[in-house]
Amino acid sequence: AQSVTQPDIHITVSEGASLELRCNYSYGATPYLFWYVQSPGQGLQLLLKYFSGDTLVQGIKGFEAEFKRSQSSFNLRKPSVHWSDAAEYFCAVGYQKVTFGIGTKLQVIP
Amino acid sequence: GAVVSQHPSRVICKSGTSVKIECRSLDFQATTMFWYRQFPKQSLMLMATSNEGSKATYEQGVEKDKFLINHASLTLSTLTVTSAHPEDSSFYICSARGGGGNEKLFFGSGTQLSVL
After folding, report:
1. Each residue's pLDDT tens digit, B28-69
2. I need a surface site. Which of A13, A79, A92, B43 has the fewest CB within 10 A?
3. Torsion over CA: A3, B44, A53, A106 (sign)
4. How far is the C-alpha of A46 from the C-alpha of B97, rounded, in Å?
5. In angstroms, rounded to a whole number, what is the distance separating the alpha carbons of residues B95 and B55?
6. Is A23 helix (H, G, I), strand (E, B) or coil?
7. Which residues of A touch B102 (CB under 8 A)?
8. Do A95 and B101 count as a contact with CB atoms less than 8 A apart?
9. Taking CB atoms and an 8 Å limit, are B6 and A46 in contact across chains?
């Protein structure tokens, strides 16, 4: 069965600092991987996705993620965090069905 | 990108009443739609998968008579919470897929249901 682990439930970073959100997955074949962001009371916005090809994926809002098959990881990164990036971030995996991780809440301090 | 419209965004109802939530794909044909439920500070849990013109497939533990799903057209799916109770209060999100896989998967903005 497919699954996603986001080991960090809550992360606090200073504005301007770099960010890395961890994601590990379990999937039987080549995974379809996603990162979504959710602001309070809102739906999900797709940041980026990986299906095949280049393992370093560029997304919106300056985010990127790297697929590492050997580590079963798909970590999300941003070189310089902005206060508006404070939100909940979900890693997800799946082709026909999507399974979400528990989410990582990002807090940005001035 | 494609747009999925979900209405209402927020609904408050009395216990025992039924609530209908609509999910529309505005600029593509959604052969498959998914309904998720999200409890506070938790992840999204898939409730059911619906394919246009056929019965929905419910995940284990989800009561199909409680959560009625209709996918009557390629652009509309509805979720009806029947005889709602306070424990049904939650954030419900739909998603729509245009192709065979999740290359074209888009989410609605969600519905916050509060049952008094």
Report:
1. 888 899 999 988 777 889 999 998 888 899 999 999 999 999
2. A79
3. negative
4. 14
5. 17
6. coil
7. 32, 34, 94-96, 98
8. yes
9. no
